[in-house]
Each structure stands twice: as C-alpha cells, then as structure tokens.
C-alpha cells in the first residue's frame, strides 16, 4: 500500500498568501470604517443641508448662466444712472456704485471663490500629505529636517503671509492667489498626516506586513495610507471654507483678485463706505460669502463626527 506524501508549499507562496491576507484584513477594516461613516452621514440632517448648499454653490461656479441671463462682461452691463439703487423686480439685489447688477456679479463671483478654494485645497493636501507621509515613515534626520522646514512656513499666518507675498507679487489673478495660499497652507496637512502615519506604522497589521517582506512603498500605500484618510478628509473639507474666506479677505484688502475679475471680497470692499446709505450692496455678497464658508465648516464638523469612531 503506497503512502502519499504531502508536499509543502514553497516559502515564497506562504509569504505571498499571508501578505495578501494581511492586506485583505486592512482593506476590510478601512472599507468598514468608510461604509459606517457614510451610513452615519446620510442620517444627519445637517449633512443634507450643507451638501445641498455646496451643490448649489458648485452649480453657480460651473454654470452661472443657469441662474442669470445677464453677463457682467457684456457691453452696457453697468449703467451709472442706476448707481446704488435698491432691489427691484428685475434686479433682486439692486445695483452697486458703478450701476452694475449685484445679483449677477454675486453669481459670477462664486466661480473665482470656488476655484481658489478647490485648487488651494488640492495643492495643500497633495504637498502636505506626501511630505507628511515621507517624514512619518522615514523618521530620524529626515523627519527632523522636514519638521523644521514646516515650522518655517508655519511661522507665517495665512493672511499675513499672503499680504506680504502678494504685495510683492501683484498679479491679481485666481491662480497666483491659489499658489500663494497653497505655499502657506500645506503645513497643517503635513502635521496631521505625519502624526497619523507615526501612530499607524506600528500597528499589528503593518508590522505583520513588514515581517512578511512588504516593501516600504507598498506598505505605505496599501496599509498605512488608507487608515490615515479620515482625518485628512475632515481637515480638507474645513479648509475649503477657510481658503475661500482668505481669498475674500485678501481681495477686500486690495491685494488679492483684481479687476476685471469678480470677487466677493472686491464687492464688499467697494460697498463698505456706503453701507449706511445703501446696505444692500454689502449685505448680499457678504451673505453669500458667509453662507459658503459656514457650509464648508459645518460639513467638516459633520464629516469628523461621522468618520471619527471616538466621536460616535
């Protein structure tokens, strides 16, 4: 009677199998967190309200023609005889000092605000996230060097730093404002990403993947990065509102977006001296700015509560 021998699988096959099992568990953990967070978000009325406001804002920025038939760039749009006139049936927000329709300018002003907020947020997230991940993974002198560089940029507050740089680099367009705010804003994301990477790189599933021979980059992007996304998503959502407000502040001070571009900050600056006699010229663009910033900040709070297990 012949005895059948059982062949053991090669060591490489066992390593690959165990690594795949560790990756599957990590992916399932992250998928469960995102699924539970999304399910929790949909139950929150505040999320639905803020999401609706943000969708309307994005529609204003992408397709302003859906909300007004006029164009602020067309000939004869501004008529001085209408200067500072109040709201009428055909002009819901009234006119500004140049006799331009405030409603149309408010609608078209959303585009520059959204572009600055989105571009700056994407840039700061990519720069701060990648540099923070590198610092957290490498440790040692690399971490120390990158942390000292970050402290240099952190020493300049967003508005003060923007005042300093924009007073020298006076281009006054959307892209220059976005670049300057991205240069000043990435350290915040760096600190969050670095802290999350340091706290996650010694977890059991990461150590198991390291012991099974996973490379540094594979371990970083397959095991560590997915488990650091929740706090980054929260701060990114909040930063959108912060950068929109910062752009308005710089434009209000006269060194941000310049004419002929349209900005809520410019509209507020033009109307401030006539607030007592014609408050509508300031209230409508200021109201649009306040609602937009508040919507993004409140959305960030709701996202934080939903995706942070400690807040549940």
TrEMBL record:
User: What is a single cellular component term in the Gene Ontology annotation?
Assistant: plasma membrane
Q: What residue spans carry the region label Disordered? A: 1-21
Q: Where is the protein localized? A: Cell membrane
Q: Where is the signal peptide?
A: none
Q: According to its record, how does it sit in the membrane?
A: Multi-pass membrane protein
User: Into which family does the record put it?
Assistant: Belongs to the binding-protein-dependent transport system permease family.
- This one is known as ABC transporter permease
What is the organism of origin for this protein? Streptomyces nodosus
């Amino acid at each position: 009677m012949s005895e059948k021998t059982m062949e053991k699988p090669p060591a490489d096959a066992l390593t690959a199998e165990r690594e795949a099992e560790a990756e599957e568990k990590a992916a399932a953990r992250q998928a469960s967190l995102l699924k539970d967070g999304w399910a929790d978000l949909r139950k929150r009325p505040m999320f639905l309200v803020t999401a609706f406001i943000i969708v309307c804002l994005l529609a204003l920025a992408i397709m302003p023609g859906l909300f007004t038939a006029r164009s602020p760039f067309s000939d004869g749009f501004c008529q001085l005889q209408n200067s500072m006139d109040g709201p009428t049936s055909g002009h819901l927000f009234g006119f500004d000092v140049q006799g331009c329709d405030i409603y149309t300018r408010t609608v078209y002003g959303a585009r520059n605000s959204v572009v600055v907020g989105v571009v700056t947020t994407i840039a700061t997230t990519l720069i701060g996230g990648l540099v923070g991940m590198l610092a957290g993974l490498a440790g040692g002198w690399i971490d120390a060097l990158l942390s000292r560089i970050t402290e240099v940029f952190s020493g300049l507050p967003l508005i003060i730093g923007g005042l300093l740089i924009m007073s020298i680099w006076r281009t006054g367009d959307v892209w220059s404002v976005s670049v300057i705010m991205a240069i000043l804003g990435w350290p915040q994301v760096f600190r969050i990403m670095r802290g999350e990477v340091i706290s996650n790189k010694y977890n059991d599933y990461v150590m198991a993947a390291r012991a099974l021979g996973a490379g540094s980059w594979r371990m970083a992007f397959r095991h560590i990065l997915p488990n650091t996304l929740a706090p980054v998503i929260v701060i990114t959502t909040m930063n959108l509102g912060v950068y929109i407000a910062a752009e308005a502040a710089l434009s209000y001070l006269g060194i941000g977006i310049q004419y002929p571009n349209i900005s809520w900050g410019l509209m507020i600056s033009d109307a401030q001296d006539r607030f007592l006699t014609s408050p509508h010229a300031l209230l409508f663009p200021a109201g649009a700015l306040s609602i937009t910033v508040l919507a993004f900040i409140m959305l960030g709070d709701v996202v934080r509560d939903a995706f942070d297990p400690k807040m549940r």
